[in-house]
Amino acid sequence: MLGGLLAGPVWAVQSDSERGFFEELPVVLSASRLPQPLSEAPAAVTVLDRDFIRSTGYRDIGRLFRLVPGFTVIQDRGHTTALSYHGLASSFASNKMQVLIDGRSVYSNYLAGGVDWGGLPITIDEIDRIEIVRGSSSATYGANAFLGVVNIITRHSAEDGGAMLSLLGGNLGQFDAAARVGARYGDMSLRVSATHMQDDGFKALVDDRRNTVATLRADYRLSSRAEVTFSAGVNSSLRGLGYTNDPDNGTRDLDSLHEFVQLRWRYAPDLDEEWTAGYYHNTERGRELQFVPILPAPFTTVDNSRVAHRDNIDFQHYFRPYASLRLLWGGEARREEVSGASFFAGEPGRSTSVGRVFANAEWRAVDPLLINLGGLYEKFQGETGRLAPRLFANWQVAPGHTLRAGILRAYREPSLWEQKGTVEFGPFVAIESQGRLEPERVTTQEIGYLGMLPFLSSVVDVRIYRERIRNLVTFESRGALPRLIVNQRDDVRIRGIEWQWKARPSESTDLIWSHALTRIESAAPNGRSSTPPYSSSLTWQQRYGRGISSTVSLINVGTTEWLDSQSIPSYTTWDGRIAWRFRSGLSNNELAVGLINGGPRHEEWRLPGRSPNPVDPFWYLSLRTEF
């Protein structure tokens, strides 16, 4: 089900004050960097744990967010998932969330700060849990944590001894193969994972894919109080783009390579103190040649290839000076480079650097009242430094019932491409930045409730919020080309309510209902409709005995018009999976059959002026064996 306790080193434990009624709720790290039960986190947090992720049968990580309140997910192609929290996004740049893998930021500078969900160097099998902070968190993670944070956390390698093999086949050319091997050598544990995915995409499009991912994680215990973790990974992908019979956006391939290395050190002198430090390097490469009809030549080749690098070092220190006070502080320094012939016309590339310092205090003022005060100061190269503060109060009004309220301010620095980019098609400039863009700024006020109810053994999480955004970065058309990248003059106001209800009517049944109502006030008409006015999901998990189980999710999304899409009518779809777990000899096995995009045919995204772009149902059969 949704949830799961924090799996990790011994120093990430609960204090006496965190035990009791909320003992069954997950402990999260992403809200403030401090280990906290959900009832004490200064934010609304949704946790997708390992068992839940596996039960959905999803091949793509991005699809999981259809089941998180407030998130909008589209598939404009079979291999491409774009998602946003509270709209104001396009399929090209859904750039208002910080996305982390084991603390490593993976937003892409050559995608204007968006995330290439199909190019992430991670296998879905190695994920322990995903923590989603629903709300601004720049006070914890800096500029890109503008409207939310997605923190993907992989399992410790010591948890994966033995081997795993899996195969999946289905319609539309689906064929997946995955393997994992784990071993332990004294104080060191090791895991190697690999996955190959391929399919032909939707029938009406050229969107086939061939994706291969390989990762390595090694954990070495230096002593009973210290540990070093090394991880590395690569994603090699070939994906079809463009449209047949469309000279302006003809068919082509995107050949991409995403890779990383990461080193992390942890030292815990006692249960109430921890030092950590780390370094990582990300590289993203994409090769894409597009043929565009430009006179006098019949076609001009536009080189959309690009390369991005990121180097990052960080440290943090957590300690408890008094029984009622926990403190955390740290810093981070990052350098980024990005180059692309058609993205920075006339320039070999661009680079920037940023430095951050942050702190968070958790103070138990009186026994039922917890105060979280945090802030982050950051300075980008050539820009003025800024402070992002946060103040939250969590009041346990009764055992199992917590009210939270807070106010915070967050910023998003425009990406290198938004700040300095120019897109050229032959002699024509299609998109150009006006330069010197102001950072986007959001002020958020929210209240929430988290409660455990005896009715059907339920847990209810409610968030009510108001967000005011200034200096929204957007496109402005002034007749002929180019389209300018500018700050919107008028403020954008977003308000809404979202909730998640989890229930266990019996030991064999779990129900999860997520719902969101959102309203956007904006001078730009498509801004007002860039998120559905309502979205909902209902997931039913059933265990029948003898190793047989099923998961069915019903998803309903209101009318939406992303910033680069036509208006898409509301739709209802469903995903389902039935699995049988059984033992044979020395192996544990799982045989499963599933369907994605069930129900009436529908669209999720369409280019203006283009023909319909319906998604297709994917059915599959899979077999998994663990030794």
Notes on the structure:
This protein is mostly beta strands and 627 residues long. 3% of the residues lie in helices and 59% in strands. It has four helices and 37 strands. The chain has a 22-stranded antiparallel beta barrel. Strands 3-8-9-6-7 form a five-stranded mixed beta sheet. Strand 35 (571-584) and strand 36 form a beta hairpin. The longest helix is centred in the N-terminal third of the chain and has 7 residues, at 50-56. It is globular, with a radius of gyration of 24 Å. The relative contact order is 0.13.
Entry summary:
This protein is 3% helix and 59% strand. With 627 residues, the chain is mainly beta.
List keywords for this structure.
Maltoporin, Chain A, 5-stranded mixed beta sheet, 4 helices, globular, mainly beta, 37 strands, 22-stranded antiparallel β-barrel, single chain, 627 residues, disordered N terminus
What is the strand tally?
37
Mean pLDDT: 88
Radius of gyration over C-alpha positions, nearest whole angstrom: 24 Å
What fraction of the residues are assigned to beta strands by DSSP?
over 45%
Question: Rough shape?
Answer: globular
- What CATH architecture label applies? Beta Barrel
Ranges where pLDDT stays below 50 over 5 or more residues in a row are: 1-23
Overall structural class, as computed from helix and strand content, comes to mainly beta
Calculate the terminal CA-CA distance, rounded to whole Å: 24 Å
Q: Give the biggest beta sheet.
A: 22 strands, antiparallel, barrel
- Number of discrete domains: 1
Q: Enter the CATH topology name.
A: Maltoporin, Chain A
The helix count comes to: 4
CATH class: Mainly Beta
> Helical percent range?
under 10%
